[in-house]
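Subject: mismatched residue count in predicted assembly?

I count 435 residues in my input, but I want to confirm that the predicted structure covers every chain. Input:
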Amino acid sequence: MLDQIHLLAAVTVLGVLEQAYFFLQVIYARRMFGISPPKISGPPEFERIFRAQVNSSEYFPIFLALLWQAGLFFHQGLAAALGLVYLCSRYCYFMGYRASSSERLAPIYFGTGVLWVLVAVAALGLSHFFLAHYVGLNILRLLTA
Amino acid sequence: MLDQIHLLAAVTVLGVLEQAYFFLQVIYARRMFGISPPKISGPPEFERIFRAQVNSSEYFPIFLALLWQAGLFFHQGLAAALGLVYLCSRYCYFMGYRASSSERLAPIYFGTGVLWVLVAVAALGLSHFFLAHYVGLNILRLLTA
Amino acid sequence: MLDQIHLLAAVTVLGVLEQAYFFLQVIYARRMFGISPPKISGPPEFERIFRAQVNSSEYFPIFLALLWQAGLFFHQGLAAALGLVYLCSRYCYFMGYRASSSERLAPIYFGTGVLWVLVAVAALGLSHFFLAHYVGLNILRLLTA
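Triage response: the counts match. Full output below for your records.
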């Protein structure tokens, strides 16, 4: 069973390490700007780093949910590859947002696009499974016959 | 194996689409009220939509965790049905909160109730598994014997 | 299959109950300090409880992701035990943060340490699987031969 999820598991752990990196950046920014918890407001330079981390945290469960459904019901390798592309776009988003609000836009649009591809891949895989399971219709076999 | 999780996977993807809808509503509200990131405060009309999305994001991993444990250890169909009811209550919560703070109350109470049912279902399924696995006591078989 | 994940599932449900407890504390604090949603700012006593819940919510998906990869690819019992230790440290963190900002530090450092151990355990298990799967190298067998 593990050979059907090991790539998804590896991308998941990489994603956790990226989240850890973002959390550390907020801790450094708190020290640099002298903003102690529980305060979350400060100069725009701090608020951009803080919001970049919060946004990444909010998207993380969504990303994992899509990664695993796409990998389990469509193709593990494709889902893991898309997952790596997403993690790269998140890194660019964080670095862009830290520099300026407008520089976050290109990577967030790209990353959201990758998530929509994962949605489509998961939906395709699930549709194929539902048709085969409930209607007895195997589309892949029909197409290749 | 996939036939034991396909309903859970489908509800998971639906839940992701609902979260995507909530994110889009915040983006539209930011444009309408002219509140650019990283700012998160503004008129109550904006803050209600923003907080509705944040609250839904915080509950999303909790919902998924319960959905899957209830589905794996008790009954996939029941867990998926409860999951659909929860997603509906979340939609009503979001729409209610957007209208006024008090209109969020009824759907959030209902949705939290659904989550507690999922907790109970997961706990029942896990208790049954633990008793059978460690004590050798099969309650279902005792009840039907 | 369920006997390979039942301890992980039980710790997951316990973690959900802990999150529910944190959410309730915020609701009580809102009532006590008279801070109605969507407001999130108030006296430091309220903001500390609020931020403790937000921080715990942000870490929850990260914790679950590590718990399951460590449990699936290394050892379920060890991962579940580390998970219980983490949940205890989160409780201490919440109670400490409620009392004062500085009292959150010791438990958050400890809890983060537990997460890093889970990262290491998951990475070890995954590395072992990748080596055996792609290189045909079984380290455990080599060590015990």
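The longest helix of chain B spans residues 105-135. Marking this ticket as 'not a bug'.
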